Amino acid sequence: MGIVSTDLHKAGAIAVSVKDVGMVFGDVHAVRSASFDLPKGKFLTILGPSGSGKTTLLRMIAGFDNPTSGEIFINGQPVSAVPPHRRAIGMVFQKLALFPHMTAAENVAFPLKMRRHDARTIGEKVERYLELVRLGGYGGRRINELSGGQQQRVAIARALVFEPDLLLLDEPLAALDRKLREEMQLEFRRIQKELGVTTINVTHDQREALVVSDEVIVMDGGEIQQKAQPVHTYRSPANAFVANFIGVTNFIDGKVSAISGSTVSVESNGQLLSGVTAADGAPLVPGTACSGAVRAEQIRIASARAGLEGLETIVEGQVADSIFEGERIVYEVTVPVLGGAILRVFNHDPVSHLQFGPGENVRLGWNAKDMHVFKK
Amino acid sequence: MTGSRSKSIVIWAFVVTALLMLSAPTIVVLGASFTAGNIITFPPEGLSLKWYGAIAQASDLRQAFFRSLIVATICTLISIPVGTLAGIALSKYRVRFARTIQIYLLLPFTIPLIGSGIGMMLVFGEMGALGKLWPVGIATCVINLPFMIWAVTASASNLSPDLELAAANCGAPPLQRFLYITLPAVLPGIITGSLLMFILALNEFLVSLLLVDARSVTLPVQIYNSIRSIITPDLAAISVVFIACAGVAIALLDRLVGLDIFLKSK
């Protein structure tokens, strides 16, 4: 957000520019009029559920499919007429697509061989990039002799060894178990920073998007829902979809009763709740059907008599369920004044080991600025 | 657990019977070839290698054997490019009328061999090519080509389409993608198919019979001709040589690609 694209174009600082790109398969619009600019050296994540068009967009950038409308520019040059093997783009595939009949080193050497580098340069570079991905000494191994994590690293080295203008990651971590996946996320981040290569990562893992990226694009139904820095995406979702897709969010349905500046008053079941307009969202007027979104971790839970000082919205409720998850407790609280809505609350008091049980009466409180109001 | 024991006895009995039935002809021929007598009998009368000596001396058998080798080589050399490309195309690309093409490719194999044999006899006869060896090579190739295509498609269908995209992404133009990625990936299928084609062409009798004349008989036809006169143990000996050739091919296949490709092929 807030990038003045014309200035950056002049400076030649834009690596990838996607302009009104659309993709139609038969009568399915996989991608609709997507546009964004990605400055050089940045790490962009395209986040979305399956079928959101994120992979289609990535394949178009790689050159495997051509957009049915719009144009993609790489370093300022339109690339529709450029076949994939002439685009200097490295890619790590979802299933890695390592060449099974070659060793790790031969896989990494392949892009250099195709570019007709001499044998000495190839040898040196393969060694350097295997070192970079911490696989020094593993070059002679066959692909099926390597573990899942090591195969990932070979795929990264192969995608980077020819110093591409752009690195594409097509959910390469999706198949890994959680611990290895988190380790590899940080590894991607480290390598990307070390080389400064512009990167586009596609994932449906919201945590990964927040952890690794400079910028996050959220896609749904073939359309870009929001493009912003991770913190901004999390704290100021542009619409209900983004708020729901990232994090655990409670939605309280109602109607806009008053609006002044960014402060909105929402009427829900006769209650007046205070919230703020979404920073990048659709405009609201009094009377609009709307939805107030509050993150589960931004709601404080306390016993029925507690004060909850400093919180602007306070409601009474009854614990329906309480689930111990280790570092936090997840409560499901029924709130009669909000028409019996069930709110999800993350909370933990690790000092007093306090946990409310089902049936207990509690009070919930949150700040007005933490309730984002979206048009319904 | 008498139930499971009796079941396993039945199964084993079945397996042993099946194996005996399958190998009986080979055992009989093998035994008969070592006979010291002058007629084919089983069990053999005494042991000797004299009939192997006899076939080494018999120039007509030897020449027929070489002719069969030539036919099998021609057949294999033609089938490798044709079968490989057809197999890859059928499994990898959404070829228009793929099913129709597959059925068409099966035709020479499904219609009775005598029918296609007569068809080819007419065609090659018209061309004045009867009695030469290359028409036999082509004919055996046409008849058995489905085996080559099956072997290649079995390998190619295991090939992830991402591999070629990855190669493109690495900077490989289409021809290099084919040479460096697709071809090595289907190589086990090509080897399997080639050996099969070689053996099938070496053994082919019916179509050979229709296409050869007295100067160009192949080994199976030669053996058949001999049977019609007097049945001597040298026929058993040459059969054993024949079986040995097939055995060598199978052993080679197992070493090169492993026999499990047959189990995996669809």
Automatic annotation (TrEMBL), chain A:
SMART domains per record: AAA (SM00382)
This protein's record includes keyword Transport: yes
Keyword Membrane: no
Chain ranges of the ABC transporter domain: 16-246
Entry keywords, A to Z: ATP-binding, Nucleotide-binding, Transport
Single GO term (MF): ATP binding
InterPro entries: AAA+_ATPase (IPR003593), ABC_SmlMolc_Importer (IPR050093), ABC_transporter-like_ATP-bd (IPR003439), ABC_transporter-like_CS (IPR017871), Mo/tungstate-bd_C_term_dom (IPR008995), P-loop_NTPase (IPR027417), Transp-assoc_OB_typ2 (IPR013611)
PANTHER family according to UniProt: SPERMIDINE/PUTRESCINE IMPORT ATP-BINDING PROTEIN POTA (PTHR42781), SPERMIDINE_PUTRESCINE IMPORT ATP-BINDING PROTEIN POTA (PTHR42781:SF4)
Protein family according to the UniProt entry: Belongs to the ABC transporter superfamily.
Record-given protein name: ABC transporter ATP-binding protein
Organism (species): Mycoplana rhizolycopersici
UniProtKB/TrEMBL annotation, chain B:
Keyword 4Fe-4S: no
TM stretches of this protein: 9-34, 69-91, 103-124, 136-157, 178-202, 235-257
Source organism, top-level taxon: Bacteria
CDD domains reported in the protein's UniProt record: TM_PBP2
All copies of domain ABC transmembrane type-1, residue ranges: 65-253
Chief place of localization: membrane
Localization in the cell: Cell inner membrane; Cell membrane
Keywords linked to the UniProt accession: Cell inner membrane, Cell membrane, Membrane, Transmembrane, Transmembrane helix, Transport
Membrane-protein topology: Multi-pass membrane protein
PROSITE patterns: ABC_TM1
PANTHER family, per the entry: INNER MEMBRANE ABC TRANSPORTER PERMEASE PROTEIN YDCV
Family to which this protein belongs: Belongs to the binding-protein-dependent transport system permease family.
Protein name: ABC transporter permease
